[in-house]
Specification:
mainly alpha, single chain, binds tryptophan, 18 helices
Length: 456
């Protein structure tokens, strides 16, 4: 009896962590992290990123989870329940806005993965010429028809899955593709590090040059930590509302942050050595990973054609599913909100977000082609969406969650959640340190980084 009880408990905590890791691990790790590292000077950025994860994102995760598990409701409901009659509940709408913007530009990058999956099917990636590989991305991005239709296909697939309620099926599929992705990435790390000229890239990742890390870099590191851990937009809150009372929030946060960061680092080591080997500019921005991957696979195909073909295909299939599971959960946030708060029918809600998402997606797609010179605040529309969601919306969202736990919730309730109703051992001293951090250190830290970034 005891054994079964124990196993069930372990099972549920494990399932929760897997679900959280599934949401966290996505294009943010594979595509966004390497390009951020390249834009902000390599190893120094990685150190800043890890620091931000441990000192700000992890406590941010804990706060969001505390609210979710305490209320056992979605964002809007949670704030209505824990702080009735106040304006905190408008966070619900803010989270929908963030999700919506991310889904739109995420679909562009998801579309690139779909495009590359189709190319790898026909062997174009693994049997190409490494010298011409970099141009593949540019040709694709410069063609409005190709990039828009791929974005539309990805967004459409996301909408259809949410509409059809086959989300669970896709998530089962990720039980195979996620570990597959992990092992393929490790394989690519080894391959990439053995490429001619790779040493320069490895040095770039491990020898920090702090002179390259300015306020912008710190803001980007914090934004990346939030983006990658899916923080500040209600996802962690909703997931945690289903978390068992006796599970440890801190432990779940540590596992999520740990697995997410590990995936990001592996991705950095898979991409950056090849960037240097191929002579690509590390600061190439969002295209970086998709310019580099064709080079890696063309080289691999030269050495081992059949293995190269199989690895390429499996890799993009895995990237596509990782991206889809992320976009599905973001789209779901939007749809659920419209259904619950405004009484939309499900198909109406799906349509109500698909159409504007598609339109914003078009502008984001064109930011790499005909509209690359159209700039607002010195950024293309894609860059603006990417930047605004993580450096502004998710950052402010996380700040609100932390402030709520530190200043609005009762201290006893926070303690109750952190100790899981007394079942998780947490010394008084440790609790007081965490509580002090949540009240006095983390909010100003987020605010300072945010302001430096805005005012710069
Ligand atoms: N963390 C995801 C990634 O790294 C992206 C993401 C941000 C996300 N917010 C989310 C995924 C909300 C699911 C739900 O790719």
């Amino acid at each position: 009896m005891n054994m079964i009880g124990k196993r069930e408990n372990f099972g549920s905590q494990f399932t929760f962590i897997m679900a959280m890791a599934g949401s966290a691990i996505g294009l943010g790790n594979i595509w966004r992290f390497p390009y951020m590292v390249g834009e902000h000077g390599g190893a120094a950025f990685i150190i800043a990123y890890i620091l931000c994860c441990l000192t700000i994102a992890l406590p941010g995760f804990v706060c969001e989870a505390i609210i979710g598990r305490r209320a056992r409701l979605g964002v809007y409901g949670a704030f209505s329940k824990l702080a009735p009659g106040t304006k905190w509940k408008w966070m619900g709408a803010a989270c929908v806005l963030t999700s919506f913007i991310i889904v739109s530009f995420y679909s562009v990058v998801g579309g690139w993965s779909l495009d590359f999956l189709l190319r790898s099917l026909t062997g174009k990636l693994s049997h190409g010429n490494p010298d011409g590989a970099v141009a593949i991305f540019n040709k694709m991005a410069a063609s409005p028809v190709e990039s828009i239709s791929m974005m539309a296909a990805f967004l459409g697939l996301t909408a259809l899955i949410v509409l059809g309620g086959v989300k669970k099926g896709i998530e089962k599929f990720t039980k195979i593709t996620m570990p597959m992705l992990f092992f393929l990435m490790l394989l690519i790390v080894v391959f990439s590090c053995l490429l001619p000229g790779a040493g320069e890239g490895i040095r770039y990742l491990i020898k920090p040059d702090f002179s390259k890390l300015d306020g912008d870099g710190w803001a980007a590191a914090l934004g990346q930590a939030f983006f990658s851990m899916s923080l500040g937009m209600g996802t962690v809150l909703i997931y945690s509302s289903f978390m068992k009372k006796e599970d440890s929030i801190i432990k779940s946060g540590l596992w999520t942050a740990g697995s997410d960061t590990m995936f990001a680092l592996i991705s950095g080591f898979a991409i950056m050595p090849a960037v240097f080997s191929a002579g690509i500019e590390p600061s190439a921005g969002p295209p970086l990973v998709y310019e580099t991957l064709p080079y890696i696979f063309a080289k691999m195909g030269q050495d081992a054609p059949i293995l190269g073909y199989a690895v390429t295909l499996a890799f993009f299939l895995a990237v596509l599913t990782a991206a889809l599971t992320s976009s599905i959960s973001m789209f779901e946030v939007c749809v659920e909100h419209a259904v619950e708060q405004y009484g939309f029918k499900r198909w109406q809600a799906v349509l109500a977000f698909f159409v504007p998402g598609f339109i914003l997606g078009i502008f984001c797609s064109l930011s790499f082609g005909p509209m690359k010179d159209v700039k607002l605040f010195d950024k293309t529309i894609f860059d603006l969406c990417d930047y605004a969601s993580s450096n502004i919306l998710m950052t402010l969202g996380a700040l609100v969650f932390v402030l709520f736990v530190g200043w609005k919730m009762k201290k006893a309730d926070v303690r109750d959640e952190l100790t899981s109703g007394g079942t998780v051992r947490l010394g008084n001293g440790v609790f007081n340190v965490i509580y002090f951090l949540i009240r006095w250190i983390i909010p100003p830290a987020i605010l300072v980084i945010f302001l430096i970034n805005i005012l710069q």
